Amino acid sequence: MKTVIISLFMILPNITFGQIPNELSKEEKIFGLSKFWQEINYNYIYFNKINQAEWDTLYKEYIIQVQETKNDYEYYRLLQKFCAYLKDGHTNVWFPEKIQDSVFNGSFGSYRLFLKNIEDKAIITRVNLSKKDEIPIGTEIISVNGINTQEYIKDCVIPYISSSTDYVRQDLGVFKMLEGYAGTKYDLKLKLPDGSQKSLTVYTSKTKEKEVYPPVEKKELLSIKWLENDIAHVSLNSFMKWEISSSFVEKIPELKKAKKLIIDLRKNGGGHSRIGKVILHHLTNDTIFYGSKTQSRLHIPTLKAWKQDTYYHDFPYKPDTLGIGDRNLLKTSRIVVPTAILIGHRTASAAEDFLIYADKQKHMIKIGAPTNGSTGQPLFFDLPNGGIARVCTKKDTYPDGREFVGFGIQPDIKVEKMLSDYIENKDPVLEKAIQYLNSKK
Asked: Which of 44, 87, 168, 370 maximizes the CB count within 10 A of its CB?
């Protein structure tokens, strides 16, 4: 692939660079770049899938480019671009806190715009309350700084995004398209739902107005809503804390009344795989659970001397088997009824591992959109002046070797929200799940 070098100033929006920290020396910038490059070379599980000669060539080009960056923000943006070459959702570079505190996404003082990729368009799905009449929900951003929105996202946003799947990369491209350091200027052209157009010039800054429209539903670790015909809608929104497991167990007496069940993982970005597995114990009669098959790299210097510097180690695969004590405890706390699992692009990591454990359960069906398509064990390390990075060190597949990283776990019934659904505040995925469950006896 031919490498095209473009000055960072050519693709960044107008920024007042005098406000940005400029503390890193050229030596520190080279060291940070080299540390990231080295950690990838030694630890990145998918290193065999990239063009290694191209990766090294890019590294040598970036040695020059990082020294030419005008400030620490521009430097870290370049590291993010270097990282994005790997196209992995569990391999990332984050700004130091002192920079991140002055980076805003969709906040422009008197305006606050929430963006979502809908039907391959950049749609405003929420605004600060005082602007709800001026910028109606469903308004499309059709150009940014005089550039067609899709071209702008392709050239100025996606090159900095680390993701394992094209559709998540596009989602994040829309979500982050108006992100910038304080003072970044954006000239926007908007197309309102009635077809009329208007121009809007904004500068990134903190928005003090807290109220938004439509209001944001409070995101709890676990929530339960009862629907008609004794269907329980259970949202499992994160596996980051064991608290959700204990909360689920506390709700079991209530959930035992359910004739059908909806498990909603659409907002679950992952956490600890064991948490999801423990919850799943209560949703099936199985005593053996088949989780993901895993693989990592081994680096042995002697093998390197023999031109075999890296090979891949498959961890011994053993399904999780419940002991007698666990089986006895679960006898009165299992809820095995027709179950719809709602999934989407934000269903990621440990939430995808949950779906691996739930695979082939005859009473369960997946409804929604393909999942994020990224999981694994990240290794975290520090970068100069407070930056943080991570690299994915573990490959996960289905027990039989089927891959889902880079592709996403596919729904059994595909349903996605359209623009009209956002405008009318409808949830077609949930509606389809209800319809499906009501058809089951």
From this structure: 168
Is 3 part of a structural domain of the chain?
no
CA distance 422 to 12: 31
The 10 Å Cβ neighbour count of residue 322 is 15
**Cα angle: 264, vertex 222, 267; to 5 degrees:** 45
- pLDDT, tens digit, for every residue of 399-427? 999 999 999 999 999 999 999 998 888 99
Residue 333, in any domain of the structure: yes
- Whether residue 152 sits in one domain with residue 84: no
Judgement on whether residues 120 and 137 belong to the same structural domain of the protein = yes
Residue 319 has a pLDDT of 86
Q: Which of 61, 78, 100 is the last residue of a domain?
A: 100
Q: Which pLDDT score, from 0 to 100, does residue 309 have? A: 64
pTM: 0.92
Give me 286's structure tokens: 């199985």
Contacts of 426 (CB under 8 A, 6+ apart): 417, 420
Backbone φ, ψ for residue 201 (5° rounding):
-110, 125
Q: Could you give the count of Cα atoms lying within 13 Å of 411 in the half-sphere of its Cβ?
A: 24
Write down the residue that tokens 């900095």 correspond to: 160
Which region, left, alpha or beta, applies to residue 425 given φ > 0 means left and ψ of -120 to 50 means alpha?
left
Please state whether the peptide bond connecting residue 214 to the residue before it is cis, i.e. omega within 30 degrees of 0.
yes
**Smallest Cα–Cα separation from 315: which of 407, 391, 377?**
377
State whether 73 and 114 are in the same domain.
no
8 Å CB contact between 190 and 139: yes
Range of the domain at 55: 8-100
